[in-house]
Design a protein that fits this description.
single chain; 84 residues; mainly beta; two-stranded parallel sheet
Amino acid sequence: MSYVYNNVLYHPNEDILIESNVDTNSGIKDNSKVLDAEDNWATKGDPGLIDYCGGNYSLNADALVPKEIRGFKPILFEQMGRRK
């Protein structure tokens, strides 16, 4: 079994797949039939990113994500990656 919970799938220029055999807003296709997906949100509209084009994927204070995904915890992008 694979588990996919509390994710945002965002693409501003392309429709994201909506698969009816999983969460209707998840954007996840389950060909294997072993996927447990809950509380995911697929959107073509800006979910509230600070600067998508500039690579800052942190969320604005008024982002829609917490409203769309129950229990969503912001990702601390500034703590990711290589450090000196």
